[in-house]
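Database export, one record per block. Field names are fixed; values are copied verbatim from the stored entry.
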Amino acid sequence: PYIDLTRFQSMDDYLASISHNMRHELRGKLRFLRKQGDVRLRYYGPDEIQAALVSLETMLEFNRRRFPLTWRAQGYYANLVRQCLPARTLLMSELVVDGQPLSWTLDFFYHGRMYKYACAFDPGFPKWSVGNLHTYLSLEESTLGEQHRASLSSRVDGEWMVVFRAGSVGAASPKAPRPP
């Protein structure tokens, strides 16, 4: 199942369509995080390969802790960053609170769409729903806040998957690279 966000004119329209409990939870947790310090999304640009690789190792460590039995090809994610970040087919972002990264995502551009591919979050903050807040802020900052078209669907494990249609990514945030 997915929600086509193209039918919404603003983030407020989208929020009005989700349950009161989810709206309340997202806004409350975001307020709580903002009390801890500056909350922002950090996007890695095509010229930040080394910094992205350092951040990737942290992301993968948290991912391995959460899913210890998952097989990962050695060097696979690092090669994705090395090859796809400069080509602007990969978007890597972090949710940062008071200078500390709490969640990470790798998103792919394919046939004019952007897909949430891999994500991880710091397990020291399980009640803050940092993965959901990361997606919420991505939508707010990069999508609906600038009238871009997108779709949102839920994965089996409860994480959010965002699919942006062609022409929807890059212009919204000066930090986010534009897809090819």
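Remark 1: The CA atoms of residues 111 and 121 lie 28 Å apart.
Remark 2: The longest strand covers residues 100-110.
End of record.
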